[in-house]
Amino acid sequence: SHQTSDRQAMFWQLNFQDRWTNNGGAGGITLPEAGVQSRFREDEFLFNHRYTIQPKLLSQFRILIARYWSPAHSNTAAARIAVNEAFTGGGAQSDRLATEFHTSITWLLTQTLRKHTFKYGINIPDWSRRGLNDKTSQIGSLAYASIADYAAAHPFSAVVQRGETKTVFVEKNVGGFFQDEWQVRGNLSLGLGVRYDWQNFLGDTNNLAPRFSFAYSPDKGKKWALRGGTGSFYDRTGPGPLWDALRFDGVRLRRFVLGPAAIPANIATFTGAGLPTSIHQFQPSPQSPYLIQFSGGLERQLARKTLLAITYTGTRGAKQFRSRDANAPLPPLFAARPNASLSALRIMETQGRLSGNSLEIAVRGTIAPKVTGMLQYTFGRTLADFGGINWYPANSFAPSGEWSRTDTDRGHQLNFLGTANPHRWVNLGISAYVFSGTPYTITTGRDDNGDGLPYDRPQGVSRNTQRNPGWIGLDLRWFKQFRLRPALKERSPSLTFSFDAFNAINRVNDQTHVGVLTSPFFGRAVATLPARRLQLGLRYQF
Fold first, then answer.
1. How far is CA 325 from CA 15, 43, 160, 200, 253, in A?
2. Secondary structure class of 238 (helix, strand, coil)
3. What pTM was computed for the model?
């Protein structure tokens, strides 16, 4: 960093990261042979410039230039064997190389005029050249409904890819924003703003997102405060769906979704000659998904260092991304796909809806004598008819029937995060939580409708009707600092000893339960959160 004058300062930074993951994905029902060896290499250059143009006008400029390189290799060069929620073995079929040359730019101006603080500028969150060499499913991926079907060599679906594996494109995201923080009176402030977002590959250009907020203290002592606001927020696709639409166009990289009758005895020798291929594409003129959030709250100062806050938050989502197979076999016989010249026709559409409501009660500050932190309880419910852009409904012709609790919805959440210092040798950091369980879905385990996906549910069963058990956790940290030259006070070198216990009560917190009827683990969990872990630490500060 370098401050050239009282009005100007500059900052340069180089970041480097290189990490490896061995046997990625293994665990639970996935055998080590189906793991992946992956690597992520990142090089970044960051420049910040801060300049006071006038006493009440500040310019802040930031640019990031980066390169990412991320290869992945399967542990085993063999076809992937996926027995629905029983085990996954063979090869991972996850060989690929993703690269990116990326830049991000933000220029922010902050201006103060009387009771107003204006902030405006431009933002380019992502302007990048992305490359993908996709060699997944080159040997093939086989799916079985049950262990009995696997023993009988009777898969219900297979996926094989053939053709050009390399895809390169440029992703562009641009935004602009304006915000006015207005101190109307000493006890009333307003916030007004608007943001505009644009992304290439999407057809809409009217993504204006207004925001409004207020804070009001009705009493002279300012022990009460009312806060509220609302705003809309647009989302981006990310690179994954763009890669899918570009490479799975039916010509470049041909993706074959095979039914039982078309699966050869040796999947690795499959050529695809004469068979229809799958296509992935966006709906005509896709639009940017957006959320509207609104909240209102009441705050009360209970003591000099203790605050009570009660806040309601609502969320409404529209035009959310989801996928469906527009060429799935038609009911009631599910005998054949409507367009025989195509296999699966994945449409990535912006038709999903979301609705969420939550009430939060929080106490912050001094919770008890010599105990400070935050105690928070949240009660809420979030419903949606989608599960993300890579999610498919059980019936591609009736996706609106998927309206239910979201996969991550928890009705009750109780958190405590704080410190306790009852004695000079007892300095504790505490993180405790009690969560109710998330939902999960009952499925048949079979591909009854012939679309190649094992998402079929029993007659009359809706999505996410079952509930996983809740979680209880307690993490503790003890620490003690020793100043080596006490006379220097804060500038003294120091040693800090620490002892951490993660999941100190060693409770078994199950991950999601298996809802597949054909699985030997139906109704049971096949993975948990980590058991108790202990950690010793020593830090020297100088």
1. 42, 39, 17, 24, 18
2. coil
3. 0.89
